[in-house]
């Protein structure tokens, strides 16, 4: 994950109702192992979700970028 930038959306292969993928068995644990720290999960829509690390100075900027990309503001 690139810190301080827009967090890429995570979804299912078809991206239909993909936000539920966060709750598939083992998904959140695997994400934790990949980024190596605790994180927030932001559900941008029913189609996807984004992850943002809890620590670090870029956390707020990353979340703001996700919100701006979602809302266009």
Written overview of the protein:
The protein has 73 residues and is α+β, with helices and mostly antiparallel strands. The chain is built from 2 helices and 2 strands, in the order H-E-E-H. It has a two-stranded antiparallel sheet with strand order 1-2. A hairpin with a 5-residue loop joins strand 1 (39-43) and strand 2.
Structure summarized in a few sentences:
The protein is α+β, with helices and mostly antiparallel strands and 73 residues long. The protein is 30% helix and 14% strand. The protein starts with 26 loop residues before the first helix and ends with a helix.
List keywords for this structure.
73 residues; alpha+beta; 2 helices; flat
* Strand neighbour order, sheet with most strands: 1-2
Strand content range: 5-15%
Order of helices and strands: HEEH
Secondary structure: number of strands: 2
Helix-strand blueprint:
Blueprint (H helix, E strand, L loop, with lengths): L26 H9 L3 E5 L5 E5 L5 H13 L2
Antiparallel strand pairs: 1-2
């Amino acid at each position: 994950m690139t810190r301080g930038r827009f967090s890429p959306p995570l979804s299912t292969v078809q991206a239909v109702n993909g936000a539920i993928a966060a709750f598939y068995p083992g998904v959140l644990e695997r994400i934790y192992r990949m980024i190596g720290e605790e994180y927030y999960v932001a559900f941008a829509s029913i189609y996807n979700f984004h992850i943002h690390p809890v620590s670090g100075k870029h956390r707020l900027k990353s979340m703001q970028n996700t919100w701006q990309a979602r809302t266009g503001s």
